Amino acid sequence: MEQTFIMIKPDGVQRGLVGEIISRFEKKGFYLKGLKFITVDQSFAEKHYADLSAKPFFNGLVEYIISGPVVAMIWEGKNVVTTGRKIIGATNPAESAPGTIRGDFAIDIGRNVIHGSDSVESARKEIALWFPENQVNWHSSLHPWIYE
């Protein structure tokens, strides 16, 4: 089973979308393996977004992520990275299809509600950064009803 890192950003938390977002991943059949409700400090945010440090929007992105609490999660399932990105929608909400999280809840690219790993490799890095203590090891009894 593949894993991905999903973060509900400060705007998603402030708008009360945490339950709705978790529900969408659960209803798809993915397993929640880790969850934290935390406020991120600047140095940690800079580590998380290190690959974007040369971009002109980097400082604004860091300031935004540290502006309020976030919900960090590990989700597990078959093709969860690719499918998770489809559930989330395009980075620019204007290009996100209705029915996606960003298509339904976001308007501005700078307040796009959620972050999701864009590859299995980045998911591994993000999970290691956000969950150094590891994750919850459990198996759902629904597994045979979801997967062949």
From TrEMBL:
PANTHER family reported for this sequence: NUCLEOSIDE DIPHOSPHATE KINASE
EC number(s) from the headed UniProt entry: 2.7.4.6
Coiled coil (residue ranges): none
Organism lineage: Eukaryota, Viridiplantae, Streptophyta, Embryophyta, Tracheophyta
Residues at which ATP binds: K9, F57, R85, T91, R102, N112
CDD domains named in the record: NDPk_I (cd04413)
Family: Belongs to the NDK family.
GO biological process: CTP biosynthetic process; GTP biosynthetic process; response to hydrogen peroxide; UTP biosynthetic process
Keywords: ATP-binding, Kinase, Nucleotide-binding, Transferase
Domain of life: Eukaryota
Catalysis: reaction(s): a ribonucleoside 5'-diphosphate + ATP = a ribonucleoside 5'-triphosphate + ADP; a 2'-deoxyribonucleoside 5'-diphosphate + ATP = a 2'-deoxyribonucleoside 5'-triphosphate + ADP
Cofactor list: Mg(2+)
A GO molecular-function annotation: ATP binding
NCBIfam families: PRK00668.1 (NF001908)
Catalytic residues identified in the record: H115 (pros-phosphohistidine intermediate)
Domain Nucleoside diphosphate kinase-like: 1-138
Name of this chain's protein: Nucleoside diphosphate kinase
Source species of the chain: Durio zibethinus (Durian)
